[in-house]
Design goal:
Elements lengths: L6 H4 L13 H11 L3 E2 L2 H6 L14 E4 L3 H13 L4 E4 L16 E4 L6 E5 L4 E4 L5 H8 L4 E2 L10 H6 L7 H4 L2 H4 E7 L5 E5 L11 H5 L8 E8 L1 E2 L3 E8 L3 H13 L6 E5 L1 H11 L8 E8 L1 H17 L6 E3 L2 H12 L1 H8 L4 E4 L2 E2 L5 H15 L3 E6 L4 E8 L4 H20 L15 H8 L1 H14 L14
Parallel strand pairs: 2-4, 3-4
Antiparallel strand pairs: 1-2, 5-6, 6-10, 7-11, 8-9, 8-10, 12-14, 12-15, 13-14, 13-18, 16-19, 17-19, 18-19
Amino acid sequence: MNAPTHPDQLQAAPSAQPWRAAPQALLDALAERFGAQLSTALAVREQHGRDEGSISAPPPSAVVFAESVQDVQDAVRLAAQHATPVIPYGAGSSLEGHLLAVQGGISLDVSRMNQVLSIDADDLTVTVQPGITRKALNEAIKHIGLFFPIDPGADASIGGMAATRASGTNAVRYGTMRDNVLALQAVTAQGEVVRTGTRARKSSAGYDLTRLMVGSEGTLGVFTEITLRVYPLPEAVSAAICSFPSIEAAVRTVIQTIQLGVPIARVELIDAHSVRMVNAYSKLGLREEPMLLMEFHGSPASVREQAETVQDIAREWGGQDFEWASTPEERTRLWTARHNAYFAAVQSRPGCKAISTDTCVPISRLADCLLESVAEADASGLPYFLVGHVGDGNFHFGYLIDPDAPAERETAERLNHQLVARALSLGGTCTGEHGVGIHKMGFLVDEAGAGAVAMMRAIKQALDPQGILNPGKIFVC
């Protein structure tokens, strides 16, 4: 394995990266151009210098609040004149250090660019600005019977979701951001506007620049418009929970469901630790056993058929009878509790930090990877929680550590290292949806190979020769 083994290396410690301070001349030029849209207040800079992860770095030198494409262009051009890093910022919900100013620079906040620009209901597409959040988008289109299914849990911005190639609970049926971003407008490192893709469902015209940009984590351009595929609201939706005697029984149920081709919309695994934490946090009374939380979309007849099939499979593995959430309010309560699992876990150990993992393996190897990882986590003695979008082989451990106890952090990073190594050996990936950021840089070489990473560096160098767009993420140039 090429992945580092020392905890400081596993975190790609920001202190190890070259520092490029924003010169006063740049700050003066930004103040003249942006006025009240520029902030150098420490509280604002600190807010924009951290995410939901556990890595720390100094805050950026300034924050620019962009309100238009021209604002983005001007901010990038001014930064380029001074060879100063620019870190795009949306909702601040990432987990792998994407937002950290590890080489200094300015934060470019696009959260005020939050409009739906067009809705093409006949073609099932929408075009939005990058700062709109997934919940706001769905509120804006539900009145015409459409919804956007990618659901990473946090109310993330669409720009951030595209940048990290995000996924979520609906991915087993609707895919990820890779599958649902049709076109982009982006500002390059030179401050020029480029467009990639069209609203057409397919194209054979040249390089697929849209797929190159989706998942680039802000290192190749700043997104200013995003065209998305949207879907009709299902005629019928039913959600159910099913408890199991063991994690293995729950996972085997999922594997068999997927291999039989049941078009389930959502299937989430929640371990007994997580159920206990969620019960306390969300005031629920769920059975504190390994659980699958499922959702079925379609016509009333197809939803009933899907549910009956999965219930039969679950019974074979010792699952309880389904408990149904049939009203929108009940479903919302259940899924909100699931999405709050991270916060429930953190609250269960006051003052702790969560070291979150994010791997994905082929569905046929899910049980092997998951059960061995559970055994390691149990043996470590470290408190943890486990949730997963297991319908597509993706799952997350959260190791709850005392931030002032280096031994606990080292244990958590060791467990993470072992988990990723196992996933890669089984034909999986080091990150199914969080992105590489800082935390997974060492693992990228193991997964993709030195030659592929060198190709990525060449692309970065060609498009951003000064290395100003979110430097120090994915790899260090």
